[in-house]
Design goal:
FAD/NAD(P)-binding domain; five-stranded parallel β-sheet; 25% helix; CHP04046_FMN-dependent
Length: 413
């Protein structure tokens, strides 16, 4: 069967980044993409999506953002075009519309790979398919009335695509909070089930908080040195937005403007949605995280003697007078529900024993205990920046060094 020294699975920014290094080093490889380059940016983001990290932080190996707004935030189509153009800069050995259906360890120690276009063999494999594979919804979603349209955040595109009426958004991670904002700005009545996600201010003391955190080295701290260690991989990202030049997402302000907020959604029965009385606690916890980040920035400014303008701290503009724990969906005019409660991994095609009891890959900075098998582009692969543009280049170079050593040893043998 056809053989390559390295097979890279996934043609997004992670797969292209490792391909750039392998191409530069003259290592035989192929990149397999089940759809088209960077299609996730085009196919699973809503129309008004923007990055939450500034454009200056967008850097891949040999390639940086060079547009007119380094402190702005690329929109969905701009990100898609930016990643696609990256491939044009070095012409990777890419095969689109080729899905991998099985990877097993071969009898010679390499890997046997089954694809929709036939079998392959390789000495090494890089899995660069991200960590968000299958959208999840709670089991009680099946008890929603049939008249209500349900969709996952990965399917949401715009308010105009939804039936007339109010919308219930469930979850306040980055996607849920931003989709609630999108619907709110479009004039829709929004009911929001708030989760335990933290938040962060967009700007503080004259700069984007991302810029402060970058200078403070937060994106470079290995996960092993983080509070909670490997448990960080389960944490929800802070909600904030890059829309209209970037701003905070303040759920309390949304409430002042008419958005209905509830605690975590826990059940549906006979047309009634039920919520935990957790709203006040979770809003306070999100604010506390944002303020703790400001504390760290203040300490950094004082320690380094940087001149930065003073800024008053956030004061809550709204608090729930009482916790609403159930609503009649029909009486509330709710015709749509957007589930923004995450994804689960799906590595059933990767038939190699490198997973924990919950199906997550076990690795050290992307290197597994199976010789020649690597992961790239996962959240918290090594640092906070690993799952975003901020640190993919560094992670890819680390794996490329390991791959090169193994390839040279194989060739010598």
């Amino acid at each position: 069967m056809p053989h390559h020294d390295v097979v890279v699975i996934g043609g997004g920014q992670a797969g292209l980044s490792i391909s750039w290094h392998l191409t530069a080093r003259g290592i035989d490889h192929v990149v397999l993409e089940r759809d088209t380059i960077a299609h996730e940016w085009r196919d699973t983001r809503w129309d008004n999506f923007t990055l939450v990290t500034p454009n200056w932080q967008c850097a891949l190996p040999g390639y940086r953002y060079s547009g007119p707004e380094p402190h702005g935030f690329m929109r969905r189509d701009e990100v898609y075009a930016w990643v696609r153009h990256y491939a044009d800069t070095f012409d990777p050995p890419l095969r689109e519309h080729v899905a991998v259906t099985s990877v097993t360890v071969g009898s010679d120690g390499g890997f046997d790979i089954e694809t929709t276009s036939g079998p392959l063999h390789s000495d090494q494999v890089v899995v660069a398919v991200g960590g968000y594979h299958t959208p999840t919804v709670p089991r009680f979603a099946e008890r929603l009335p049939r008249s209500i349209r349900q969709l996952h955040s990965a399917e949401y595109r715009s308010a105009a695509d939804l039936p007339d009426g109010a919308v219930l958004v469930v979850g306040t991670g980055q996607s849920g909070a931003q989709i609630a904002e999108d619907l709110h700005l479009e004039g829709r009545k929004v009911h929001l089930a708030v989760g335990s996600a933290p938040r962060v201010a967009r700007f503080y003391r004259g700069r984007d908080c991302v810029a402060w955190l970058q200078d403070m080295g937060h994106y470079d701290i290995p996960i092993e040195d983080q509070p909670g260690g490997l448990g960080k991989r389960e944490n929800t990202n802070h909600y904030v937005t890059g829309r209209d030049g970037g701003r905070d997402i303040d759920l309390r302000q949304f409430a002042v403007e008419g958005m209905a907020l509830y605690g975590r959604m826990v059940d549906v029965a006979d047309g009634t949605a039920y919520f935990e009385p957790s709203l006040g606690k979770d809003l306070d916890a999100a604010d506390a995280v944002a303020e703790s980040i400001k504390d760290s920035i203040d300490a950094h400014i004082a320690r380094t003697g940087i001149e930065a303008p003073a800024e008053p701290r956030y004061r809550p503009v709204w608090r729930p007078e009482s916790e609403v724990t159930d609503i009649d969906l029909a009486a509330s005019g709710i015709t749509s529900v957007v589930w923004s409660v995450g994804f689960r991994t799906d590595y059933r095609w990767l038939r190699v024993g490198v997973f924990d009891g919950e199906g997550h890959p076990c690795h050290n900075r992307g290197v597994t205990t199976t010789p020649g098998l690597y992961f790239l582009g996962l959240p918290w692969l090594h640092t906070w920046g690993s799952g975003r543009f901020a640190a993919i280049a560094r992670d890819a170079e680390h794996l490329a060094d390991r791959i090169t050593v193994t390839a040279c040893a194989t060739a010598a043998a």
